[in-house]
Amino acid sequence: MVFLNKCDLVDDEELLELVEMEVRELLSTYDFPGDDTPVIRGSALKALEGDAGEYGEKSVLDL
Known about the structure:
The model has no long low-confidence stretch (mean pLDDT 97). The protein contains three helices and two strands; from the N terminus they run E-H-E-H-H. It is mainly alpha-helical.
């Protein structure tokens, strides 16, 4: 499982998708199941602050 942190700072959805694709490629390069690995987008800081939004507590609970 991969947690992409600081997603709250990025406004461009395409950029987040690009980062996720690159992480999956790196996982595959090192013989991990990149295509099958769950990727959770979130913000650890937002979760600590109690933010109930998409990148806050929900993302950490999805882990």
